[in-house]
Amino acid sequence: MPIYHRLGRIPPKRHIAHPREDGGLHYEELMGNRGFVGPSSLLYHLRPPTAVREVELLRQVLLEPDPDQRVRHRHLRTAGVPVGGSPTLDRLPLLFNQDVTLSVVVADLEDPHFYRNASADELVFVVEGEGVLASAFGELRFRPGEQIIIPRGILHQWKQRGAMRLLCIEARGPLRWPARYRNDCGQLLEGAPYSERDIQRPSELQAHDERGPFELLVKQHGAITRIVLDHHPFDVVGWDGYYYPWAISIHDFEPIVGRVHQPPPVHQLLAGDGLVICNFCPRPFDFHPQAIPVPYAHSNVMSDEVLFYVSGEFMSRKGIEVGSLTLHPDGIPHGPHPGRYEGSVGATRTSELAVMMDTERPLQVTRQALELEDADYYRSWLA
User: Fold this and answer.
1) Pairing of strands 298-299, 27-32
2) Domains of the chain: which residue ranges?
3) pTM tops 0.85, yes or no
4) Model confidence over 71-90: pLDDT tens digits?
């Protein structure tokens, strides 16, 4: 995360004494990725962050692929996911490969535990619901349309009001701004589809001075471990750096348009290892007098395409609804449904809203996803 941020009380220099009011010292914790060469933040705790009372295995996390390995276009209707459960423990995995797992959940329970994903950076798209993502870095308020990025290893807790519907992308490598959006100082360029002003950062830092026990669940090595902490983990009095949870609303993404149809990379939000994430937002259509706004058919050579439809409208698709998720895999060309190509000529704008993910490695559909599948979707291009 290339924006420096600070909250609370920190000493004038790093790695010097930061006295407590009772005469003791605050405890430093450096948190960052890629050893000591990636982005990091320095936190100051009331108590050692290493104090643990108990450790036990809670459960395995198994991803079982659909045994039917025929290559075909897939359509999952996630609006049918039942309401219920935890935003961290009851996610329904739909797609996965070595680089990423995509899940959905309609959570109506507020987690009593703290949670840390030690295996992946997370992008959580809020389809419905509002509340606060709390962490040792402060609070991030969210509402529908928010895309919350939680870097790997950050301990956090969801506090929502009522049920919330989430799309969850767990990326094994760090999620980052595309290099072409940044100058050599890391600043977002004028031509990027969003700016630093659109980035929401933690606020309202409050240090909790409470003795335990407190329950932390850590996802790592294909399992979830239950750890009992000696004290409240949000005991940070101050921090600064570049590594923290942040958010950007899909409604703050500014589409790039042209005289003729622009390719999908203009919609890119983030880059990851083996994947990209894009936003499709309401925008004017191409303005050449003979432009065909709907995209041409194309083959995803060395790429699988996933689209999650936030609205029930998409310029090139028929038969989708709010919460539809389509997978168009490498090996088969895909394109607009019959009638959409010709019917788009002369159209002036679209109101579509969708999140797209392209992966370099083939994606597997999980067994759990099969109950949500529109099994005839691959035939929907027949006239």
Assistant:
1) unpaired
2) 253-373
3) yes
4) 999 999 999 999 999 999 99
